[in-house]
Design goal:
The N terminus is likely disordered. It is built from 7 helices and 9 strands, in the order αααβαβαββαβαββββ. This is Methyltransferase domain-containing protein.
């Protein structure tokens, strides 16, 4: 759990840093063993979505149809382990080698203790990969992916990088694949400093509806909800947008869930 004095230090730590230099700052956090964003476990919102799979919208793996998944900015790999328990062959990607050392240690401990029981026909494979999400020349990674899970990754990126985030997601998601976003912090104002940067629903709609393009924003850089634009032919269509029954306490206020979970697919596939 993050102490009240820890989380506000993140915006101060990143203050004045150019967008392209943020990855170095995140790596420094891991080097210093200072990870106030760490959730301490997997996303229950993701678990519930996969378990319930409304209208069968999520392509779940089975013995005759293996599926791959990606968790960018995976940190200690909690959600990588969760997806593996549903049978996905999962890549946990992070820019910090120290983060992946921690993820490997966490995985060994969790699996030895019998956590993450198998939810599908078998446990999927896990691979940790130290890569820049935006680099086009990934090594030893089998892309595209059938499922990508984004939680505390989108909000970790300064807004100028969001068009590139959406464009990269478009190239990484397979035809028929699903991008799942746990939208956080959904009620933060764009005028407030990050990370985490404000991530209300119009941000996801604005960038994913037309990947690579810059939607209209206000003076603080927040997407203007009324001007998100129409769905581009090569954009992402939002299939699901709900408040999860359960989420991490950081996404709640006075017992009320603030987070949203959204599911996206290629519009032209």
């Amino acid at each position: 759990m993050v102490s009240p004095n820890e989380q506000p230090r993140l915006p101060k730590f990143f203050e004045g840093t150019l967008p392209q230099e943020h990855s170095t700052k995140w790596a420094k956090c891991w080097e210093d063993k200072w990870t106030p964003w760490d959730r301490g476990g997997p996303s229950m919102a993701l678990y519930d979505l996969l378990k319930e799979n409304p209208d069968g919208l999520i392509p779940l793996p089975n013995e005759g149809s293996p599926k791959t998944a990606l968790v960018p900015g995976c940190g200690r790999g909690y959600d990588v382990l969760l997806l593996s328990s549903f049978g996905y062959d999962v890549y946990g990607l992070d820019v910090s080698s120290q983060a992946l050392d921690a993820a490997n240690e966490n995985a060994e401990k969790a699996l030895s203790e019998g956590l993450y029981k198998i939810e599908g026909s078998k446990r999927g494979t896990i691979a940790w990969t130290c890569q820049d999400f935006f680099a086009e020349d990934w090594k030893d990674v089998q892309a595209p992916f059938d499922l990508i899970f984004d939680y505390t990754f989108f909000c970790a990126l300064p807004p100028p990088l969001r068009p590139a985030w959406a464009s990269r997601m478009k190239s990484l998601l397979s035809s028929g694949g699903r991008l799942v976003c746990l939208e956080f912090p959904s009620e933060k104002k764009a005028s407030e400093p990050g990370p985490p940067w404000a991530a209300p629903p119009p941000e996801y709609l604005g960038y994913l509806s037309n990947p690579g393009a810059q939607p209209q924003t206000d003076e603080h850089g927040g997407v203007i909800a009324e001007k998100t634009g129409s769905l581009a032919p090569d954009g992402f269509e939002r299939l699901v947008h709900i408040k999860p029954r359960r989420t991490h306490e950081s996404g709640m206020e006075d017992g009320r869930v603030q987070d949203y979970i959204s599911v996206w697919a290629h519009a032209n596939k």
